[in-house]
Design a protein that fits this description.
Chain A is an alpha+beta fold and 183 residues long. Chain A has five helices and five strands, in the order ββαβββαααα. Chain B contains 16 helices and 28 strands. The chains are: A alpha+beta (183), B alpha+beta (696).
Chain lengths: 183, 696
């Protein structure tokens, strides 16, 4: 064994910060290395392993969470920057006793296979539906002066940042479409 | 007594765990004293490490150790030499893992990896596959154990004598599996015993490999793989992450979590070899094939031979009196290629089914009809009748559903504004195999049942399918059956690969259920637990060697932008004949997943090798493109109601791979129909299309 106990500090105090963040409705306080991403803070420090690490570079979307209600790739967010803010992860989507309609629709439409991208897909879809409700356009929105209608083409475009190697895409679209229609 | 569970569309059992984020993958189990490993890849292609300077890394806060060939625990030589990592200073390819930094945090491990200084002596390298490479040789066999070459009749004479001939060469680039979950392992040693949570397609073979490498009895090792974030072949057998994690954990005497980064997956965990494939087809004027030849070239590494069975598809797909197939390899200074969804059949079918399209045009026959005309009830390779072959039925039903009838075969015949529209078809087949497995079935006093088997669910729906099979075999409603999989402590079973998981596992489960029912003659619940076990080694091994294959037909419509050459998928439709379908919900997902990966192969994926550095430059998901949600407008999969009693007790053929077979050819054929441009080197990028011809 190399190194030694003197090196085995969890964090170097000069380079760490106390971070208070609301996660899934509960206030959490944790001291983190300043280099820690929000994704690693969730997974390695708060035992919230729902958000997944697929690429650590913001390229796959598996780590998508909601930060103050908006979808972000948590691997691209330093945890120190979320002090005082609110995070919702896949673990926070369900109600106390039952799945959210979106989660239930994902199961009903078999909108996943291996499940690794699924937490990101769900958080992304939740954030995306809110963006549509606010009237935000996407790259395929034709008329920017009227609220975007949630067509399949809109769903596909707006969910294109969440890769699924199992390719459950048509089922993801169906689940999102059904959830949007019933809400 | 069947309860009708098989064939019914159940949602997958682990669905709630997966949509709530509570399903734990390999590096997600909480544990005390855990440390983090970060792999260090070699910076040279071919050479030798002359010095490793770990001073700076070890001085970095949190770093516990730098494990490398100079200090790593020793491993025994094994059948997979590329897994003997950190044992010697030799570098065989760029990206080979040459050290692991272990630290108390992920950030410290990553920083430590940056601070390790390594000096190399490096020599010249050869990393590019060419058809005239001086190192071309004939391997003794091809994956997994097919003959390298086959010949029947006299191909040269048959080809020369035919009135219609096609002689074309296709190329495919390196493809990288890229499951969404990178290869990852948590390893911990306790009193000489090793426990690993591994992202693998088979915990039983991983345990066997670790036992060999660490010279331990298999009983001292436990491998858990409850949830696995995809594999597509790249997690078949033990991979570097499990070896590195086990070495590091032994070295620091603490649990180690080691996840490879996305960039580190491009090569060292396997990939699909680039191929160069020459196809020669000869036919009479009615389109009946008289001669077929498929010559395939692929690459392997200097460490181990892996010979992709690229031309094997051609041996059994279409009949002709004069036939020849060959495989040649080159040993390059590259990582060893390995399985990727339908190794052999996938690239091979791309070439053959493209060439069939070219032949259809040359002879002036509809491409569906050409395939029907060359159908055969007898396997041209083995000379025996197929146990079932419904290729023609798939083609007919697919044509009907797709609306193929009345297709104008002339090229560039449909246009919608700036879009050129075309349609294409391809055949598809994949062998139906099974491997020995064992299982136990237990009856409990409360009327419930427990079925245990070390199957792996990498996203296929295996857990749910086996549960349905078990319920039917036990003759009880599935709600009374509990299923346990994904742990080497359970009865040993085949890995999830080769489209033989369900066939292999259900075989053992059915036999265990039958044995249990014999022990419970009155049918009621026992007063104490009663367990029966089954091992299918003898039965599977004693099965007659017959040609057993699943079949399919793939239909594609694309639109191509006449100005930019951009190719978009309008719709894709597949019809398959794959024996019994256990669960229509998960089966459909598997089939469209395979078809989409074929679309991805045709249009998006391409490992771009930089010869100077001997490595793929686009080694991430921003630059190695895979099909995204926006690329799939319409994709449908159907299947025939097929019964074949010469397969296995469950009557299944396997559906994990056939979806990708032929899919890329159907796309390429549709692009050709739309544009009149035949791109014979995948992927079909817009610059290739407009580079050849002014589409507008």
């Amino acid at each position: 064994m190399q190194g030694g106990p003197e090196n085995a500090t969890t964090t170097d105090e000069r380079h760490s910060s106390r971070v208070t963040v609301e996660v899934n409705g509960a206030s959490r306080e944790v001291t983190l290395d300043n280099r820690t991403t929000l994704l690693d803070a969730l997974r390695e420090h708060l035992d919230l392993t729902g958000a997944k690490k697929g690429c650590d570079h913001g390229q796959c979307g598996s780590c998508t969470v909601l930060l103050d209600g908006r979808r972000v790739k948590s691997c691209l967010v330093f945890a120190v920057t979320v002090d005082g803010r609110s995070v919702v992860t896949v673990e926070g989507l369900a109600g106390p006793d039952e799945l959210s309609p979106l989660q239930a629709a994902f199961i009903a439409h078999d909108a996943f296979q291996c499940g690794y991208c699924t937490p990101g897909q769900l958080c992304s879809a939740r954030g995306m539906l809110d963006e549509v409700a606010r009237g935000w356009p996407s790259a395929v929105t034709g008329d920017l002066n009227t609220p975007a209608e949630l067509t399949d083409a809109e769903i596909r475009e707006r969910m294109a940042g969440n890769l699924c190697r199992c390719a459950a895409y048509p089922h993801i679209v169906a689940a999102v479409r059904e959830t949007a229609a019933s809400s | 007594m069947s309860t009708g569970a098989v064939g019914r569309a159940y949602p997958r059992l682990e669905g709630p765990a997966k949509v709530t984020g509570t399903a734990r993958y390999a590096v997600e189990y909480p544990m005390d004293g855990v440390t983090y490993g970060w792999a260090v890849p070699s910076a040279v292609v071919r050479g030798r490490i002359t010095r490793i300077d770990t001073t700076e890394a070890l001085a970095s806060p949190g770093v516990l150790a730098v494990v490398h060939h100079g200090n790593a625990p020793r491993m025994a030589p094994g059948p997979q030499p590329e897994l003997r990592l950190l044992q010697e200073p030799t570098v065989h390819y760029r990206g080979q893992y040459v050290a692991v930094v272990v630290a108390t945090t992920l950030e410290a491990a990553r920083e430590g990896a940056r601070l390790v200084r390594i000096d190399y002596d490096s020599g010249p390298h050869s990393t590019v596959l060419t058809e005239d490479h001086p190192g071309l040789y004939k391997p003794d066999q091809v994956n997994p154990s097919y003959p390298t070459d086959t010949a029947e009749g006299d191909f040269d004479a048959g080809y020369a004598a035919a009135p219609v001939r096609v002689d074309v060469t296709y190329r495919t680039p390196a493809y990288h599996n890229n499951p969404m979950e990178p290869h990852a392992t948590t390893a911990q040693w306790h009193d000489g015993r090793l426990l690993v949570h591994d992202s693998t397609q088979g915990a039983t073979p991983v345990r066997a490999t670790l036992a060999e490498l660490f010279e331990l009895p298999p009983e001292s090792i436990r491998v858990v793989a409850e949830h696995v974030g995809g594999g597509f072949g790249s997690k078949g057998y033990a991979k570097a992450s499990v070896v590195l994690a086990a070495l590091a954990a032994r070295h620091v005497e603490r649990p180690v979590k080691l996840a490879l980064t996305r960039q580190q997956l491009f090569g060292p965990v396997g990939y699909r070899t680039p191929t160069i494939q020459r196809i020669r087809l000869a036919a009479d004027t009615d389109g009946r094939l008289t001669a077929i030849c498929h010559d395939a070239i692929g690459q392997t590494s200097t460490i181990r031979e892996f010979a992709e069975q690229t031309a094997v598809y051609t041996r059994s797909m279409y009949a002709a009196p004069h036939r020849r197939t060959t495989h040649r390899l080159v040993r390059l200074d590259v990582p060893t290629p390995f399985w990727m969804r339908a190794p052999g059949e996938c690239p091979g079918a791309y070439a053959l089914e493209s060439a069939m399209d070219e032949l259809a045009i040359a002879v002036g026959i509809d491409p569906v009809e050409l395939r029907v005309r060359n159908d055969t009830a007898v396997d041209p390779d083995q000379g025996r009748p197929f146990t079932s072959r419904n290729l023609v039925a798939c083609l007919r039903e697919g044509a009907e559903r797709f609306g193929w009838a009345g297709r104008d075969p002339s090229l560039r015949s449909r246009r919608d504004g700036r879009w050129l529209i075309g349609t294409g078809v391809a055949g598809s087949s994949y062998p139906a195999r099974a491997r020995p497995s064992s299982a136990t079935a237990t009856a409990r006093p409360d009327g419930s049942f427990l079925v245990q088997i070390n199957a792996t669910d990498i996203g296929t729906g295996a857990r749910t399918a086996i549960w349905q099979v078990a319920a039917d075999a036990l003759g009880v409603p599935p709600e009374r059956v509990e299923i346990r999989i994904g742990d080497s402590e359970l009865p040993a079973a085949a890995l999830a690969g080769g489209s033989m998981g369900t066939a292999s596992w259900s075989w053992a489960v059915i036999r265990a259920a039958q044995a249990l029912r014999e022990k419970l003659p009155d049918g009621g619940p026992p007063t104490g637990e009663v367990t029966a076990e089954a091992d299918t080694t003898e039965e599977v091994g004693g099965q007659p060697a017959l040609p057993r294959y699943a079949y399919g037909a793939q239909f594609v419509e694309v639109r191509v932008d006449a100005d930019t050459g951009e190719v978009r998928l309008n719709r894709m439709l597949g019809v398959f004949a794959a024996g019994r379908v256990v669960n229509p919900t998960t089966a459909r997902s598997q089939l469209i997943g395979g078809m989409t990966m074929g679309l991805s192969m045709a249009l998006h994926e391409e490992g771009l090798l930089d010869e100077r550095y001997g490595d793929w430059v686009n080694h991430d998901l921003a630059t190695y493109h895979i099909t995204s949600c926006a690329d799939v407008e319409s994709i449908e999969a159907y299947w025939l109601d097929e019964r074949d009693d010469k397969l296995n007790p469950a009557g299944v053929k396997g559906i994990g791979e056939i979806g990708i077979v032929g899919a890329a050819a159907a796309v390429a054929n549709a692009v050709h129909h739309a544009t009149g441009v035949r791109i014979r080197e995948l992927p079909i990028r817009l610059d290739k299309l407009i580079g050849v011809s002014d589409l507008a």
